[in-house]
Amino acid sequence: MRTLRDVGIGENVKVKRITGEGPVKRRIMDMGLTKGTGIYVRKVAPLGDPIEITIRGYELSVRKNDAEMVLLED
Fold it and tell me: pTM of the full predicted structure?
């Protein structure tokens, strides 16, 4: 299954589900990354961390570890 970490610059994707447990999962969901939400990947840092995305009309930077918990629709 593809995760947000695997997405290239300029791609539009949609969240299928969030993995993880407890406070980490809650924090990701509080940032707006919820099931069915569209994401546009704007930039990726030279070493791959963080990933800058546009979601719900605002820009957000997500760490690689958190991006691995966001599963995407095919």
Answer: 0.84
Domain housing 13: 4-72
Q: How many CB atoms lie within 10 A of CB 70?
A: 26
Which CATH number is 40's domain given? 2.30.30.90
Query: Cα–Cα distance between 60 and 41 in angstroms, integer?
Result: 10
Domain count, the chain: 1
β-pair partners for 55? 39, 58
Tens-place pLDDT, residues 33-69: 889 999 999 999 988 789 999 999 999 999 998 999 9
- Identify each DSSP E strand in 1-74 by its residue range: 12-18, 38-44, 51-55, 58-62, 70-72
